[in-house]
């Protein structure tokens, strides 16, 4: 199925729904970064075990990226979106009943499996229903909800964690997810041009051919590495900054929540600005800008963690957030604009697998490093700096030309 551009009014409705869905998904992710401070105390977790809790979601999420993309391409993006939100809502609510570390790890892993189909399916919807010169903007609007959640969740967490507790918060988040399911079911256009399940077996070689083509593209492997490196920095920071500010900078949760609103605002602005710029500037130029920003990212990470005051720390964090956000939005633009819409779900799933594997590895690795160095974050910071430099190289290796996945249609 080639792109079917919707009328303007419906495109606006659709982007609002994608924005809301991504907001709810990020609500849970960011909640865990703050709730884990209390969960760690309730379950007597070490820094390494805390890192495992933060990482377990990303293992399930990463493992579901490629299957989620394949399913969206074959069965339709709406179906996969509905299943994704249903499953993640169930396991978000079940987080509240976790009484041991092992149970919590299983629930968070299954939550990740549920959410794993969302971004590949959303990317396919964007690639199918929007003209090419709007796709980065639409993606930026959807992803900006993550910035809004990063701004709101610290305050929400600071208030609710000390009043109703972390278990009640996750039940509420699960209920919100059910509301999103109903909206998606009623409003998102029906899937057209996809095979019914009873005919899928006849098309099995097609999937292998598509994957074979994608696996042979230098573009895709450059994106996998670039996704891994930028999301290693992203989720390393998001997962550990609340704990770092509490343990090293001696801030209380309310102060952390208030301060983290500032980088959250910067993320939202950076996302919207980046989408506008990338849609209007040749990808070859955007790629050079992205590589330069990734290099600056390494510099400002060092400045941030060596800041002599909280004011300087937050200032550098805002710069880090701006630089990182541009790169995060640049990478999916290569899939949305250089891969045919018929295979956009699978391609996005493949690329995003790298990013979510980073989300699994990095929080645990940082926890191990903090334990190994008696509470010092220095080794972890240098790891993020080196990863940023690898990101520069991977971005520069990306091929900008239109990709052909012919022979599979």
Automatic annotation (TrEMBL):
Protein name: MFS transporter
Coiled-coil region list: none
Entry superkingdom: Bacteria
PROSITE patterns registered for this protein in UniProt: MFS
Keywords: Cell membrane, Membrane, Transmembrane, Transmembrane helix, Transport
Residues passing through the membrane, by range: 43-63, 75-91, 97-118, 138-162, 168-185, 218-237, 257-277, 289-307, 313-336, 357-373, 379-399
Major facilitator superfamily (MFS) profile domain segment(s): 14-403
Species per Swiss-Prot/TrEMBL record: Lysinibacillus antri
Chief place of localization: membrane
Gene Ontology CC, one term: plasma membrane
Topology term for the membrane: Multi-pass membrane protein
Position of the signal peptide: none
GO MF annotation list: transmembrane transporter activity
């Amino acid at each position: 199925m080639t792109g079917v551009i919707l009328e303007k009014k419906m495109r606006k409705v659709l982007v609002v729904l994608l924005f809301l869905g991504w907001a709810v998904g990020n609500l849970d992710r960011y909640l865990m970064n703050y709730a884990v401070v209390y969960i760690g105390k309730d379950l007597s977790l070490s820094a390494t075990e805390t890192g495992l809790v933060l990482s377990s979601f990303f293992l399930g999420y990463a493992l579901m990226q490629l299957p989620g993309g394949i399913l969206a391409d074959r069965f339709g993006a709406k179906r996969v979106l509905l299943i994704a939100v249903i499953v993640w809502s169930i396991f978000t609510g079940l987080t509240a009943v976790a009484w041991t570390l092992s149970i919590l790890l299983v629930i968070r892993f299954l939550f990740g499996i549920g959410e794993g189909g969302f971004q590949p399916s959303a990317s396919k919807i964007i690639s199918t229903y929007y003209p090419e010169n709007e796709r980065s903007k639409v993606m930026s609007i959807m992803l900006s909800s993550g910035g809004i959640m990063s701004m709101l969740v610290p305050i929400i967490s600071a208030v609710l964690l000390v009043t109703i507790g972390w278990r009640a918060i996750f039940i509420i988040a699960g209920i919100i997810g059910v509301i999103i399911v109903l909206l998606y079911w009623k409003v998102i256009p029906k899937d057209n041009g996809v095979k019914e399940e009873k005919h899928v077996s006849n098309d099995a070689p097609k999937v292998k051919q598509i994957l074979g083509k994608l696996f042979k593209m230098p573009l895709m492997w450059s994106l996998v590495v670039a996704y891994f490196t930028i999301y290693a920095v992203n989720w390393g920071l998001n997962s550990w900054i609340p704990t770092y500010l509490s343990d090293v900078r001696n801030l209380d949760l309310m102060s952390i929540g208030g301060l983290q609103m500032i980088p959250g605002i910067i993320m939202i602005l950076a996302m919207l600005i980046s989408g506008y710029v990338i849609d209007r500037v040749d990808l070859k130029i955007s790629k050079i800008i992205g590589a330069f920003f990734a290099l600056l990212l390494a510099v400002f990470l060092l400045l941030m963690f060596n800041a002599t005051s909280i004011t300087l720390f937050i200032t550098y964090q805002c710069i880090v957030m701006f630089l990182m956000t541009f790169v995060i939005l640049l990478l999916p633009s290569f899939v949305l604009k250089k891969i045919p819409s018929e295979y956009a779900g699978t391609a996005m799933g493949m690329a995003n697998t790298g990013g979510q594997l980073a989300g699994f590895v990095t929080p645990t690795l940082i926890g191990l490093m903090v334990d190994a160095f008696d509470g010092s974050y220095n080794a972890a910071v240098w790891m993020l700096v080196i990863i940023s430099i690898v990101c520069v190289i991977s971005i520069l290796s990306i091929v900008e030309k239109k990709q052909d996945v012919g022979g599979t249609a």
